[in-house]
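Researcher: Can you fold this with pyridoxal-5'-phosphate in place?
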Amino acid sequence: MTASTTTVRDSDIAPELLEQGRRAYQLDRAHVFHSWQAQGRFDPTTIVKTEGSYVWDGNGRRLIDLSSQLVNTNIGHQHPRVVEAVADQARDICTIAPQYVNAARSEAARLIAERTPGELNKIFFTNGGADAVEHAVRMARLHTGRRKVLAAFRSYHGGTQLAVNITGDPRRFANDYSAEGVVHFMPAYPYRSYFGSESPEQETERALRHLEDLILLEGPESFAAIIVESVPGTAGIYTPPPGYLAGVRELATRYGIVYIADEVMAGFGRTGAWFAVEHFGVVPDLVTFAKGVNSGYVPLGGVAISPEIAETFNDRAYPGGLTYSGHPLATAAAVATINAMADEAMVENARRLGEEVIGPRLERMRSEHPSVGDVRGLGCFWAIELVKDRATKEPLAPYGGSSAEMDRVVAAIRAGGVLPFANFNRIHVVPALNIADDVLRTALDVVDEALAVADGFARA
Ligand code: PLP
């Protein structure tokens, strides 16, 4: 199939909507200050309509959303049950302070607690992922009476001051004053092993030895928490090798360190399980979540808390809170999202799509395209890592940056009618968990074809 035949049809977007989009673009350029961007150089795409796995740009062009935006629309766009639930809640009680009991918040907490691993049955609600991470660390510090935090390089944990310092990617650099008590360690990353490993098993063993050495050399009693993305997301969807997370759990227990699983991106069905830790058979002490909990229809995040840590705050006030903790609109969206996911078997579908559609197709891309260094993932959570040279693994864009070559690949994907998620030298395949098989196959055809552009830069 060629890109032109897979290009999705432009649709009948009302002229008023397109006009509104043009005006929105002008106002955006005049007044909106965007995240992470050099403001003067940024040229954002306008979106005028969204539905299911599609978005329409400012020219009325329909694109398949293979990004789930920032990997949050796990149930796709404008799911009618969630839209209705938010509207109903708005008519009923739009907002209420966190100290008052509210039906939507209580039910959301119950539904989340039912799905978290082990006995993590108390839920603290936040406005998003970064503040969930901040609060998880605060809980760990107060619970242990210790201060320092262990976090992995090649990770992302949020944009607020502590969360961005916990983050192990270049977004930290400009925000790092060495003041947050964070110690970074090398992650288990078999494709580009920091330990010279030649097998996943060796990587697990060596990465855990490095982690334990670091704990011992830094002083085990100084660490309050270790935070690990169960499957690191923005940093490259590099699934941990067998036994790695079990080893992290074991080290945390041995040295009295609280294990925080950051499931902001990997949670709520993304990997084909409600929480990604389920694949690895481990139970953390705290789990942070956001994004997929309500598909991002209204901002929401939170921390699921173990009985031991919850107990710390039984007779002692928890020194933290937010005006919008458990906001009714956000938690009503979570209730409707979780129920829709369960009723429509979306988590099972994500697992099937990973096993039957995405995984095999990406493997084929690896075998056919010299520019594909590695493919990896599970469920609806996959990365294609592009290289100039398979032998040296020289990336198509440098770590922490972009390149003209990568820009050309991304442009080819968009020209084919697909909205991709790209980071450094990677294309992420992260569709909604309920994307139709034929739409997903069309999107993968477009990616496959765009890889011919990448092949042009690769030494065979
Ligand atoms: N943790 C992880 C693993 C994430 O992927 C993200 C966002 O991408 C965050 C935390 C921060 O979440 P938010 O952007 O909602 O603050």
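Model: Folded with pyridoxal-5'-phosphate in place. The radius of gyration is 22 Å.
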